[in-house]
Structures are given as C-alpha cells and as structure tokens.
Design goal:
The complex is a heterodimer of chains A (379) and B (300). Chain A is an alpha/beta fold. In chain A, 47% of the residues lie in helices and 12% in strands. Classes of the chains: A alpha/beta (379), B alpha/beta (300). The complex binds iron/sulfur cluster.
Chain lengths: 379, 300
C-alpha cells in the first residue's frame, strides 16, 4: 500500500476511534478543557513553574536541571551517563530533538530504543513518521526485514506476532544489563516534582525501574501545576491518540523509596537509586513570551492533528526537516520553536482540520500563519 | 521539502503580486473583458450601495491554479510587456471555463436579486481582494493593500458587499480583524432565500467556509432544503477530517497541490461518484479527477 492510501485508512480509523472514546468516556473532554486552562497558567508564568519543579524534584532526592539549548542538554545527559554504559531509551521526542542517542553512542555507550516503533526506526536507520506511531510508514514486511538483522529466524513472511516476540527477546537481554534508563515525560507536576508517563507496551515501566539510574528528559512545556493535572494529561493524551484506556500509566517521583520499617521513608529501595530530570528550554521560554506563538506550548503531542492535515497526508515525514522529530501541523509549530525554521509553514494550506481535532483547542492555522509571516519577512 | 525552492518562489511571488496589486488592483495582468462578460446584458447597475463582489475568483480560477507556472514568466517581464500580453494565450482562461463562470455568476446574481434590490457590480473597476497575500502569509503587504481596497470601496460609496466565494469572504473577515474593514459583507449563500435544486452528491467542503467561517451546517442546510441529496461519511466529509483540494499550495508547488487534489478526489469518490463544491478553486483543482459541480450549478 502506498503512503497516501495507508495514511488515509489510518486517519479514518483514528478519527472514528477517538470519536468513540469521547462518546464512551465523556469526562475526557472535560479533563481536556480543564487541562488547557492549567497549562495556560504555566505558560503565562513559566519561569516560576520551572523553579518550583526543580525545587520539588530535589526535595524528593532527585536531581533536576534546566538545559537552555540542545548542546547544554546533551552535555548534562552525557555527564550523567558517562561512557561504556548500556542505555535503554523509551520513546522521547526531546531526545530526538537534541540527537541524544547518537551523542551517547559517540561516547562509547550502547544505546537501545525500547519502544517497538522506535526500535524498528533505529535498526533500519530511519526517522520517525509520527510522534505517537513512529514506524507508521513501515509495513509488516519492512519491519520483518529490519528485525531479521538481529534475529535470523525472522523473514519477510513472518507474522507480526513473531516479529514482536523477536524484538521482545532481544530487548529483554538488554534490560537486564542496562545501567541507565532514559525516558521522556508526558507531564511534570510542579507541585510535587513527579513525572507521569503513558504507554501500552510496558517498556517504559521496565526502563524506569530496572536500571539503577533513571533520566527523564522533557520540555519545560510539559510542566503542569499539580500531579492531578499530570494524570489528566496522560488520560487526555492517550484518548486523543485513540489508545484509551492506556495499558500503563507510570508515575515517578524521585528515586525508589520505602517506608516499610517504622514508616520512615528511605531511598533507594528496589528500583533506581538515582533520578534525574532534565528540563529542556530550547526556544520554549521565548515562545511562552510571544503572544502569537505561545498557544503552541499547549500541545500534548497526541498526534491527532497529523491525520487531519492534507500536506502531511501527502508528504508524510518528508515535510518537516529531519532536524525535527515533530511533523504535521504541530511539527510546523515545534520545528519553528526549537529550530527557528519557518519554511515548512509555507506549505500550510489552512485546511483547518487540525484545530477542529486538537484536544487543547490550539488555533494551529493561526500560529502557522504567524510563522509563515516570519518567514516571508525574511525574504 | 525543498526549503530553498520555497524561499525563492515566495520571494518572486511576493514582489510580483504586491507590485501588480498596488498598481492595478489585480494579482496578475488579466483580460477584464472576459472577467466582466457574465454581467453583459444583465442590466446590472455599475457600482451602487450594495455590490456583488466577484474578486475575479470564478472568472480566473484556472489562472490562479497555474500561478506557479506563470510566476517566473511574469517575474521576468517588465510591466509594459506584461500588459502587452493581456489577452494572449499566457493568461487567458479557456473559453469553456469563462462560459461556465458566466453561467454561475449570472445564477448567483439572480438568486441574490430575489432578496436584495438594486445590487450593483463594479465591472472593470473591481479590485481583487488580496486573498493571495493573506494566504501566503505576506501580512504587512496584505494590510497595506487592504487599506487601499477599503479606500477604493468607500470612494465609490459601497455600503454592503455580497461575496460569491470563500476566499474573498475569508479575506474580508481578516481585513476586518487587521485593518478594521468596516463595510458589512456576507456570502451569497447566507443571504439567499428559498432555492430549488436537485441531484445527489458528496460534498467537498471549502476549508474556509466550513472551518473558518462557520458555514459547515449553513451550506448543508441550504442544500438539503433545496432538495439536493448529500451523501455523508464522517471519515471523509466530517468537519475535522474533510480536507483541502490542494489549491492554496499551488502557487508554491503545483505538483504537491495536484497530489492533494488526487488524494482528496479518491476519498470523495469512495463515498459517492458526483462531487459538489462551493469554491471555484476547489473546482479547478478537483475537476481533473472526478465528476464535479459547483453549488451554483445545482441550485437556482
Ligand atoms: S497540536 Fe493538538 S492535535 Fe496536534 S499533537 Fe498537539 S495536542 Fe495533539
């Protein structure tokens, strides 16, 4: 099936599934509205929410850092990881944004993506097609061809289940030896320093508890006022991604701990000894101060707007440059925020479906119009 | 995407478009005799308090579609040579396209006349709205040109404007926002009374009407009450998923525009074989790939 036909089928399916979820769980739309207001509070006052978050992560016995740009973030992560380590990654867009995997590999670390889609992209040396489903452009045959490289028992006729099992077997052998687990965060609660992550595969749960060090790297835009808001965000994100209820929701608040003896909470316990949160600025703070751009920071990366976009549905991942893991309508906004590249906005056909389906009600065409304007002013 | 190519094309369009508009009120040199042909013999007053505003969209839709092709040529011509080329093959729509636009605009005028008396038309003096400037993101130029257009309408005593296409309606909406364009305007579709129509179609919504001007239901209600049967599929014609004909990206990349049109036509045809549109640009983009009609060809 060619890309246009594939994405057309996938988009129709996603649209109907999200509509069904919203009908069946009517509280999701209410949570989304409330979340928008809460996220806007943070955007209006990002500086103080960043400080509050850092203070509360440290109070939990974790370490928190504010990285001002890509270089800074790579350096911070590189110092924590060190060299000659085994690192397991769960899907994190910010790691892509800063080229973290390649950077750690260049420092003699063995790095493995553990999200199935990301893993397929890694071993086939590709680039994510979609933020929620990175290997969306790959067929069963493509996946089998890639996995054959690590498991010769797989060939192009293998069933999807067999391909998945082969990857699982391979990754299990890495998990048990992994020194460091690196994840993103769907939301970071300023009031408590806790992070929330949503997933279906179970890899994040393993990445966050098996290795003795857990690093979460995420954007400052992921900060929400409270842990309750963080839980709302994972629920809303998974629902609008069309994957509700999600199989797993993970909350990490500092290193592992126990209060089993005399009810005195001590750390570490069985899970990681160390927890590090790297909060990434990389243009986000500037965007929060730009009236025309700041709405983009509301994005919870559900990926729904991709499916409503005619340009994405024709160009796929060839639209926004590979400097950016973000594509589709939100990618046009985020590629500008993080790379100051206005040109993908020029292709926007103001179809407007994106704003209709966005759970955060971001006026995406209006933000893109502004980015177009910035580009056109420079010529 | 090829960002360099886009940057160059934008630079070229920006200079040509703005220059043409500020000098002649038209986005490219066009044969005005063809543009006003629809009004011949209709006894339409020239100007007046209330006007029907075509902004050349129906008459020149096929030229707008080929803008990417024309731009390099127009860019290399000096003004006198551009003017000399008026009426030549270069910027002249095909006869059948003009004839179709004549039928459509005459029908629109007749429907409007039933609810409004003495609707005028500016004939050769009519200014283009500036849609292309807005849609390509040339906002400074858009505001500048918008002020000129507003002044032009005011000088001619225009007090009310009736638009015939979504791009112009959306452009006036944005002029209102950006430069306080204070002459009231409405789409003909929201003012015409009871109309009659027939046929069975799948509706390809204009993005602007349905998702920017809040007319998704207005148009459907109008069609249904006229007796036109619309076949729906929420994954193709739903408000959040019904997508563009590809037109707006045409000036920058005609191939991409065409690929979108092809994809859109294929999904529309999976719902029903006959497609209905409400925009002249949607029509010219989708027409090579499906059986298609404009709303103003099925209601009267
Ligand atoms: S912009 Fe809206 S629809 Fe698109 S990914 Fe972000 S939250 Fe989802």
């Amino acid at each position: 099936m060619n890309w246009v036909d594939l994405i057309s089928t996938v988009s129709g399916g996603n649209y109907m599934e999200v509509e069904r979820i919203l009908k069946e769980y009517p509280y999701i739309a209410e949570l989304a509205d409330h979340l928008r207001d809460q996220k806007m509070k943070v955007i209006e006052n990002l500086d103080s929410y960043v400080s509050m978050t850092i203070k509360n992560v440290e109070r939990l016995g974790g370490h928190a850092y504010l990285a001002k740009d890509k270089d800074d973030a790579r350096k911070i992560a590189g110092e924590i990881v060190g060299e000659d380590k085994i690192v397991v990654f769960s899907k994190t867009n910010v790691a892509y944004e800063i080229g973290l995997r390649e950077y750690l590999e260049s420092r003699h670390n063995e790095v493995w993506e553990t999200d199935l889609g990301e893993y397929l992209i890694q071993i086939s040396k590709g680039w994510p097609t979609h933020i929620v489903a990175p290997a969306l452009g790959m067929t069963r045959e493509d996946a089998a061809k890639a996995v054959k490289k690590i498991d010769p028992s797989i060939d192009e006729n293998s069933k999807i289940e067999d391909v998945v099992a082969a990857v699982r077997k391979f990754l299990m052998s890495k998990y048990v030896k992994a020194d460091i687990g690196i994840t993103g965060a769907n939301a970071v609660a300023a009031d408590s320093g806790a992070i929330a992550l949503v997933e279906n595969e179970g890899n994040i749960r393993i990445d966050t508890v098996m290795p003795q060090t857990h690093i979460s790297i995420t954007g400052i835009d992921k900060i929400v006022p409270t842990l309750r808001d963080a839980m709302d965000e994972v629920m809303v994100q998974s629902a609008y991604a069309g994957l509700f209820p999600p199989t797993y929701i993970n909350v990490t608040a500092g290193p592992s701990s126990t209060a089993d003896i005399e009810l005195k909470r001590v750390s570490p316990a069985t899970g990681p000894k160390n927890f590090h949160l790297i909060l990434m600025d990389d243009g986000r703070m500037d965007a929060s101060r730009d009236e025309e751009l700041k709405e983009a920071l509301l994005c919870i990366k559900c990926g729904r707007c991709y499916f409503s976009c005619p340009i994405y549905r024709v160009l796929g991942k060839d639209w926004v440059s590979t400097k950016s893991p973000y594509n589709g309508p939100t990618g046009v906004m985020w590629n500008y925020i993080t790379n100051k590249d206005p040109w993908p906005a020029s292709y926007c056909v103001h179809s407007g479906g994106c704003k209709e389906v966005c759970p955060m009600r971001i006026n995406i065409p209006e933000v893109i119009k502004y980015i177009k304007y910035i580009g056109s002013k420079s010529i | 995407m090829d960002e360099d190519r886009v940057r160059k094309q934008e630079a070229l369009i920006k200079s040509i478009l703005y220059r043409n508009l500020m000098e002649d009120y038209t986005p490219f040199p066009l044969d005005k005799k063809l543009a006003v042909k629809w009004a011949n013999g209709m006894n339409i007053p020239k100007g007046g308090r209330v006007i029907l505003y075509t902004s050349y969209m129906y008459q020149m839709a096929s030229v707008f579609k080929s803008y990417e092709k024309y731009v390099p040529t127009l860019g290399s011509l000096g003004k006198s040579r551009i003017l000399a080329s008026i009426g030549s093959r270069l910027i002249k729509p095909k006869d059948e396209d003009i004839d179709r636009s004549v039928r459509i605009l005459q029908n629109v005028y007749r429907m409007v006349s039933r609810v409004k008396a003495d609707v005028g038309y500016l004939y050769e003096d009519e200014p283009y709205s500036g849609s292309l400037l807005y849609e390509l993101g040339f906002l400074d130029e858009f505001k500048e040109y918008g002020k000129k257009v507003l002044g032009f309408f005011r000088d001619r005593g225009v007090e009310e404007i009736i638009t015939v296409d979504p791009h112009t309606t959306n452009t006036l909406t944005n002029l209102k926002k950006y430069i306080n364009f204070d002459i009231p305007f409405h789409s003909y579709l929201s003012i015409i009374g009871t109309v009659k129509g027939k046929g069975k179609f799948v509706m390809h919504d204009s993005c602007l009407y349905s998702r920017f001007l809040d007319m998704y239901d207005t148009i459907r209600d109008k069609m249904k009450s006229a007796g036109v049967d619309l076949v729906e599929d929420p994954t193709v014609t739903g408000k959040g998923v019904g997508f563009c004909c590809g037109g707006p990206v045409g000036p920058l990349n005609a191939d991409l525009s065409d690929s979108i049109a092809k994809a859109r036509a294929a999904s529309l045809k999976s719902v029903y074989e006959d497609v209905l549109v409400a925009c002249p640009l949607c029509y010219v983009n989708l027409e090579p790939y499906c059986s298609i009609k404009d709303i103003a060809e099925v209601i009267e």
